[in-house]
Every structure is written in structure tokens, then in C-alpha cells.
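pasting for ref
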Amino acid sequence: MEGASLKLLAQNGEAGLTISEPQVQEWASATTKELGGCDALKAAHDAELQQ
């Protein structure tokens, strides 16, 4: 899902699902927290690029 929008990611790739912008933002916030925060996500992304 590289390059997908936050909304599409929040919809789990199912564009037909109805989800509001506040729901997208809440999903993004909760997911970022669950995955260890922005710094952890950036580090994981950078490590992947180095491979």
C-alpha cells in the first residue's frame, strides 16, 4: 500500500468503506502510538530504505 492515503490505510484498503476525516485522524493517532511513535516509524522506514 505504498503511497496510499491515510484515509485508504484507515479503511484497510477498502475504498468503499465510509470513514470521516475525524475518524481517519483518530485512527492515525492511535496507530502511530501503538507502533511506538513517529520517531520509531521514521527509524523503521529509514532502516527499510537501507536494505
